[in-house]
Amino acid sequence: MAEKAARSRVALVGGDSLLAKELRELLEHGKPAPHIELISAAAENAAMLGADDEEVLALVPLTAESLTGSKVAFLAGSEASSRRALKLNPPDGPVLIDLTGALEDQPHARLRAPTAEPTRSLPEPGLIPVIAHPAAIACAMLLTSLSKIGPVRRSIIHVFEPASERGKKGLDELRQQTVGVLTFQKLKMDVFDAQLGFNLLARYGEEALEPLEGVEERILRHVASLLALYPSITMPSLRLIQAPVFHGHSFSLWVEFDEIPNLNLLAEGLASAGFDVRSDDPPTNVSVAGMSGLSVGAIAADPNQPRACWIWMVSDNLRLVAENA
User: Fold this and answer.
1) Which backbone phi and psi does 314 adopt, to 5 degrees?
2) What are the tens digits of pLDDT across the range 48-75?
3) How many angstroms separate the most distant Cα atoms in the chain?
4) Which of 90, 111, 207, 271 would staple 277 via disulfide (CB 3.0–4.6 Å)?
């Protein structure tokens, strides 16, 4: 009797991150499921609690040896660990797939979002796929689908960013601030340098780890790259707002068509394109947690502009990135 073929091996750099947990869940449901090598984002060996604080994860150090033998290495830790993985990856090492955006400026990097592309293809040899920001993927998917229903003249998008986009540190800070506001404690402000608990932010404080306007610029850049495959679609006007929510992107879109849209046909067209359309019960970022795809609802005509309408959309930001990776 022939022996069973050995399982493929994949590496997860930053194996204890929020994105790594999503990837693990998707990979473990593969048939056959690959062997997953969990690699620390640091250079030393570590054993630490997982993202759900219920399991202990043993991570090996990030070295050339720990990358060797894997077909693919998903870079899901910090930007620093992604750059280190690129430096350490041997010539015959795994294909690197960057979920952190750290390698976007590399000469051989290519921005990818298979769910928003006309045709899905594997990475070209020698190129580094960099997965687009999840908000950019969602916006591109919706605009391309709407353009197939009717020509879009212009659009305005408000994106509400969840704390999980800043990783575990962002979640922990929002959690502490939420409790701190209610109990009159001093608020932790290492990540946002501003009160996010029970608040909306158009900008972070000056000492934030990363400026919100930098994230906004990255989303716009990624939307432009993804829509370059669809030259007939006009770039949207976009504003990023930090919301006091833990998980899930929310989007408020204003879309103007060349002609007065039929909202029923619009909903039917989006449903045919694979969107989860909820006409009677608009989706929320909580209701789509752990779900694939995009959910839309609250589609309403603009009473001041007959050719325009409003659309509400939500998505699980971590799941969307993991599935594209």
Assistant:
1) -135, 155
2) 544 445 566 788 999 999 999 999 999 9
3) 73
4) 271
